[in-house]
């Protein structure tokens, strides 16, 4: 099959490596010529260009740009394609993408591979990045069955586990388990830094161990990504944050009231609840 | 030297392994006879007994019981000891311990080895548990120099990094980097569970990945330990929680106001602040 990849970063590059290995012709497009050369050298694409019109030859196009560029790049892209071409994206928020793109392109289906790495860019591309990882697809009631099956077959060939849901369901789910943790974790770092006595702050920094390391990890991550989550998934994230604030207030109340029995029940409940998550 | 260990769990047992190896005579005391047998079999003590009076032969006694038992066990212990015996403890909160014990025993010095394991009990004891880990000592203005140097020398021989500070400073520092993270992390789990649509909750549980795993880890830990932290370090923890709530509210406000520039600045600041912690 001829498969196009628009945006050759960690996700686009890794996708290319797997698809090329499975015998497809992979047409890569990047804004940067140097990225095109790197993608070819790494064996991530059959051919690469800065010219979007090359994607005309593709039967399916994966849009793998950063979240904020998916809609504008899509608008440029569709003028080059036949109506039959299936388009999918890999954005980590789905509602605004699907709402913007579905009315413009019948054969569009939103997607989100839940795979990543602390590194980014084509240099970080790796084989089997999607294997045994969740890959969410968000078809709407009007998405043609053929478009769904075409993308599903490719995704299954990567070894990923497919989940189908509505864009809003996806966005709420990732708000709980991905976007809220970033904000919770970032606030932890900011709070620890608010200690006013320099000796105590330095002591805290020296004594910090695995507990602080793990709880603060995602809050110390890429600030641009954090902003993107907040910007594109604002409503779901605000809802999660308000719920979080309520839970935190309940916990503060228990400690203020020295209600150790209820506090222990609450901590027991979160201990057992955590096992229900895929962690 | 004759060194006593009261309480043969992970910390007491590991301490014994190291001290025995360094040529000391280690006298262990546990409430459970089976624990005494295990400690001897593991090479964690030279001798072990359920009889506290055996500690009379010790020049230094480490109290390694759970936090809530340190004060009552100490009260039983001192009737058996000579005044010259140095006593130290390993409790993870220092102010209430030091306030209770210092007036009763001149040769007392509070301590807290920042070492642990997910497992507990004598079975989990291991050599070099304290090596290259922080070990806080909290002498007061009245602690005799000899008591400080005796305990310091033993701690240094374990390969630990000693920090001296006031009990209140220790408790504030661990509140930021150890106790607050537990409450923040536990609230995250409780919040994710508050999703009312069953499909979305199950999706969130399936999509949960490294971000959720790390941020929720300490919130899914031992509930009794969490309660101990809150009970014994209540004031410092409440202060940390109030500060946390303020930081969280600022972040919620920025997202509500769609102030993406300030949000990015905040996330950049937490990203760089995190590097100042020993993580």
TrEMBL record, chains A, B:
Gene3D superfamilies: 6-phosphogluconate dehydrogenase C-terminal like domain, NAD(P)-binding Rossmann-like Domain. Keywords: Coiled coil, Oxidoreductase. Residues 234-261 form a coiled coil. GO terms for molecular function: NAD+ binding; prephenate dehydrogenase (NAD+) activity; prephenate dehydrogenase (NADP+) activity. Pfam families: PDH_C, PDH_N. InterPro entries: 6-PGluconate_DH-like_C_sf, NAD(P)-bd_dom_sf, PDH_C, PDH_N, Preph/Arog_dehydrog, Prephen_DH. PROSITE patterns: PDH_ADH. Residues 1-279 form the Prephenate/arogenate dehydrogenase domain. One of its GO terms (biological process) is tyrosine biosynthetic process. Belongs to the prephenate/arogenate dehydrogenase family. PANTHER family: PREPHENATE DEHYDROGENASE, PREPHENATE DEHYDROGENASE [NADP(+)]. This is Prephenate/arogenate dehydrogenase. The lineage of its organism: Bacteria, Bacillati, Cyanobacteriota, Cyanophyceae, Nostocales.
């Amino acid at each position: 099959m001829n498969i196009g990849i628009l945006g050759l970063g960690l996700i686009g590059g890794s996708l290319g490596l797997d698809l090329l290995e499975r015998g497809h012709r992979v047409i890569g497009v990047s804004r940067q010529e140097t990225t095109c050369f790197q993608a070819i050298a790494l064996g991530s694409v059959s051919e690469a260009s800065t010219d979007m019109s090359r994607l005309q030859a593709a039967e399916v196009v994966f849009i793998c740009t950063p979240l904020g560029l998916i809609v504008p790049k899509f608008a440029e892209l569709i003028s080059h394609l036949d109506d039959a071409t299936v388009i999918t994206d890999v954005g980590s928020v789905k509602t605004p993408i699907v709402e913007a793109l579905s009315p413009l392109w019948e054969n569009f289906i939103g997607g989100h591979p839940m795979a990543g790495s602390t590194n980014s860019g084509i240099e970080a591309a790796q084989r089997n990045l999607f294997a045994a990882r969740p890959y969410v697809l968000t078809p709407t009631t009007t998405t043609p069955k053929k478009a769904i099956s075409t993308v599903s077959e490719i995704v299954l060939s990567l070894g990923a586990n497919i989940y189908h849901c509505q864009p809003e369901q996806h966005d709420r789910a990732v708000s709980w388990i991905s976007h809220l943790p970033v904000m919770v974790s970032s606030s932890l770092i900011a709070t620890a830094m608010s200690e006013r006595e320099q000796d105590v702050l330095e002591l805290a920094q020296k004594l910090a161990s695995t507990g602080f390391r793990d709880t603060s990890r995602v809050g110390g991550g890429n600030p641009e990504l954090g902003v993107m989550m907040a910007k594109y998934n604002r409503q779901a994230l605000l809802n999660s944050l308000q719920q979080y604030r309520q839970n935190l207030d309940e916990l503060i109340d228990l400690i203020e009231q020295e209600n150790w029995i209820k506090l222990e029940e609450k901590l027991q409940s979160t201990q057992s609840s955590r096992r229900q998550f895929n962690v």
